Amino acid sequence: xxxxxxxxxxxxxxxxxxxxxxxxxxxxxxxAFTGTMRASMSRIWDDVKDDPDVHVVVLTGAVRAxxxxxxxxxxxxxxxxxxxxxxxxxx
Length: 91
Description:
By secondary structure, this protein is α+β, with helices and mostly antiparallel strands. It has one domain: GMP Synthetase, Chain A, domain 3 (2-Layer Sandwich), CATH 3.30.300.220. Helix content is 34%, strand content 20%. The protein starts with 10 loop residues before the first strand and ends with a helix.
């Protein structure tokens, strides 16, 4: 079963035979996780568990560090957006 992961944010996905390689691809932040990356990974794992043609998944990073952890700047921006959206009165 072949899935198209080309539109997923923050990750690159390659398949060779029965091996799926997922590369975290945010070199400007040392592959720090964002909400977009989390959503992409969640979807990929859901697909992989239902794909009998994938036997191995390799998770790697695109830069010198595997991942710097969570992207705190992106989290802060998301939090501000959520607070601003909830603070407005609906008419």
